[in-house]
Amino acid sequence: MSQLHQNLPDKKHTSASPWRVCSIRALSFLAPATSVIALAAALLAASGCEKSVDSVIDSTGIPPTISQVSASPTIINTDSILVGGTKKPEDILSIRVLVFARATHPLGAQEISSVRFTARQEGNTTILATGELSDAGTDPDQVKGDGLYSARASFSIKRADVGAYIIEVGAVDVKGFASNTVMVPVQIIRTNQPPLLSDLQAPDTVRLASQDQLLELRVRASDPNGLDDIQRVVFNSFRPDGSASTGNPFQMFDDGDSNHGDARRGDGIFSLKIILPASTQTGTYRFEFQAFDKSNEGSNVIIHRITVKP
């Protein structure tokens, strides 16, 4: 005890020493706890940072979506389009198509910046037309803000350039993210069919009897593409020696004009009156009748022979 007492500090320091020891001991226990708290704070901070990054990716990386793309018409017959009253293969035609598409965005329609289309021939990268679809409720769009976008696509081709054409639609949002693209085909075709002649009315024999003779000729013309597709009906005549008559070809009429010998306009019966002078060479004449449509395709040829006698 005396040895222990000798090792103790002076009395004036006795009351302070135990607190110093306790403080040191307390610090030895607090240090690990502080490390745990610091680690937890760091983990929370890291977790917060990761969540912030995820939030940025989620809000900026979602593109718009295009669906329900359609075109009208989807089949265009170029032979239904006239240029200067005819339908030549080299005619330049303006093709017009209505385009419709639904555009949506997970964050709302206000995030969609634009919806656009391109037009090209299938298998060809050349762009024939490009434009923007609208959801503003102005023609051709019907309802403002319904998510259905509309536009008129217009491009030019030659009448003979038939085949499949592609209308492709896509969208971009306000942050520049592009949607999927959807393609819809438009078929360009030619369905022209030639006209047909039938029911020829013409005499087999004419007697001159030393005077001029009136000859009335009539033939019926029809066309699978409609009577309006018939451009002209004509005939050529050939003398008994086979040479062509002066004035070939002779135009026939469906105009209702009695001077032409036509009884009713637009009934498909084409007529013509001709005068055979008294001096006409006698013998057998050959007449060849044919119709042509606005694509310049010819009908069947009706051959008729008329024998002129004195």
Strand arrangement in the largest pleated sheet: 2-8-7-4-5
- Spell the H/E element sequence: HHHEEEEEEEEEEEEEEEE
Q: Compute the CA-based radius of gyration.
A: 47 Å
Q: Which structural category fits the helices and strands?
A: alpha+beta
Largest sheet: 5 strands, mixed
Mean pLDDT: 85
Number of helices: 3
**Share in helix:** 10-25%
User: In percent, how much strand structure appears in the residues?
Assistant: 35-45%
Detailed description of the structure:
This protein is an alpha+beta fold and 310 residues long. The chain is rod-shaped, with a radius of gyration of 47 Å. The longest helix is centred in the N-terminal third of the chain and has 44 residues. It has three helices and 16 strands. The N terminus is likely disordered. 18% of the residues are buried. 17% of the residues lie in helices and 41% in strands.
Task: Kindly list the characteristics that best describe this protein.
310 residues, alpha+beta, five-stranded mixed beta sheet, 3 helices, 17% helix, rod-shaped
